[in-house]
């Protein structure tokens, strides 16, 4: 027992391994740039690769639904200087397929040695999804992510989160794509559903290798009370947008945990990852890889070397491999009834409030 412990510690101490097999593809590390403006052209993708990211999910590519997003398309909710939440009204890429054809050629010529995951979104019929899936496969994508999660603009056209909110559609579209391509298919889920595990099960039954959770959460970032104007202010109007950043992390963690506990799918966790510790929380809830978008918009790509170093230090200290961490905290999530049996203290409500107040305000 002691010998095996010493042996294991020595191995772990001498070589921390950040490589991970995710949906049958090998990644040099579990940190991916998620789909968004920081993965929308070759310069950014090359820059992410050179900074040491483990993979990139391209900005969602489309055909018939490609159009310009409204402007302004971003809004922020802050407390002092800290960003609490971010809203976007950005649609999928504004670049047509001819432009992406050039982008993907550049990416190929640069010999980017990390997996490139092509995110795609077709319109409201299967054929376009299949066409796009084959199109990105022919141009060297390592995997495909089906964007069933965008909560604004696209649902009005019966795609994006509209598909992700109907388990039967998720099943149909996923099955069609899976049977048309030879590379692994990942389904990106919207948190704006009653039970995300039901939707994930539909993706699993249709042959998806993995899911990405979560896309943005539908919301309104704020109201300018002087003008009675919802934000972002698009020429005097606004619409329900996609919220990301720190505020959505709890929703992302719960979503990942629910999927982890109810399916055998591999999971890429995303939503409010602003630090390496946030990533570890996602691993412990059941994610095998993690993605970051809003933070890369604010900070660029370079910080990833620091995150990897910190993660390695943590793994050394705790003697964890990456695989060890996956789902270990999710296994401690039980029913309410279970918690009632293990509750030790019966404090008053006021005492509980005071405890929380103390934790927050010191
Ligand atoms: C400006 C912006 C644009 C986005 N565009 C896409 C997109 O094209 N496709 C997609 O699947 N997700 C898109 N997302 C969602 C992100 O990939 C991610 O799921 C979400 O922002 C939560 O992660 P974060 O808190 O790290 O940003 C976008 C997010 C932002 C902030």
UniProtKB/TrEMBL annotation:
GO cellular component terms, semicolon-separated: cytoplasm
Pathway in which this enzyme or protein is active: Pyrimidine metabolism; UMP biosynthesis via de novo pathway; orotate from (S)-dihydroorotate (NAD(+) route): step 1/1
An MF annotation (GO) of this entry: dihydroorotate dehydrogenase (NAD+) activity
Signal peptide: none
UniProt keyword terms in alphabetical order: Oxidoreductase
One Pfam family this sequence matches: DHO_dh
Catalytic activity: (S)-dihydroorotate + NAD(+) = orotate + NADH + H(+)
Domain (Dihydroorotate dehydrogenase catalytic): residue spans on this chain: 18-315
Catalytic activity, EC: 1.3.1.14
Oligomeric and partner information: Heterotetramer of 2 PyrK and 2 PyrD type B subunits.
Function recorded in the entry: Catalyzes the conversion of dihydroorotate to orotate with NAD(+) as electron acceptor.
PANTHER family documented for this protein: DIHYDROPYRIMIDINE DEHYDROGENASE [NADP(+)] (PTHR43073:SF2)
Name the record gives this protein: Dihydroorotate dehydrogenase B (NAD(+)), catalytic subunit
Species of the source: Acidianus manzaensis
Phylogenetic placement of the source organism: Archaea, Thermoproteota, Thermoprotei, Sulfolobales, Sulfolobaceae
């Amino acid at each position: 027992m002691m010998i095996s412990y010493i042996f294991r510690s020595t191995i772990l101490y001498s070589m921390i391994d950040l490589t991970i097999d995710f949906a049958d593809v090998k990644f040099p590390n579990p940190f991916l740039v998620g789909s968004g403006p920081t993965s929308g052209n070759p310069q950014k993708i090359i820059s992410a690769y050179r900074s040491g990211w483990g993979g990139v999910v391209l900005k969602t590519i489309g055909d018939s639904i490609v159009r310009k997003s409204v402007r302004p398309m971003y809004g922020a909710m802050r407390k002092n200087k800290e960003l609490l939440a971010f809203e976007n009204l950005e649609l999928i890429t504004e670049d047509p397929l001819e432009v992406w054809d050039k982008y993907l050629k550049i990416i190929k010529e640069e010999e980017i040695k990390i997996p490139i995951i092509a995110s795609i979104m077709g319109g409201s019929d299967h054929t376009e999804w299949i066409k796009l899936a084959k199109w990105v496969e022919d141009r060297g994508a390592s995997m495909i992510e089906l964007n069933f999660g965008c909560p604004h603009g696209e649902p009005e056209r019966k795609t994006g989160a509209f598909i992700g909110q109907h388990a039967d559609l998720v099943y149909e579209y996923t099955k069609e794509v899976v049977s048309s391509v030879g590379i692994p298919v990942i389904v990106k889920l919207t948190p704006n559903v009653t039970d995300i595990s039901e939707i994930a099960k539909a993706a699993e039954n249709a042959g998806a290798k993995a899911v990405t959770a979560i896309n943005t959460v539908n919301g309104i970032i704020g109201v300018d009370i002087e003008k009675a104007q919802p934000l972002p202010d698009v020429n005097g109007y606004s619409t329900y947008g996609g919220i990301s950043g720190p505020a959505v992390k709890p929703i992302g963690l719960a979503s990942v945990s629910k999927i982890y506990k109810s399916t055998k799918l591999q999971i890429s966790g995303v939503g409010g990852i602003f630090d390496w510790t946030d990533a570890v929380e996602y691993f412990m809830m059941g994610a095998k890889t993690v993605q970051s978008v809003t933070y890369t918009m604010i900070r660029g790509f370079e910080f990833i070397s620091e995150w990897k170093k910190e993660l390695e230090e943590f793994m050394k200290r705790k003697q964890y491999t990456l695989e060890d961490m996956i789902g270990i905290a999710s296994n401690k999530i039980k029913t309410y009834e279970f918690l009632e049996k293990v509750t030790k203290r019966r404090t008053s409500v006021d005492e509980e409030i005071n405890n929380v107040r103390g934790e927050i305000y010191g």
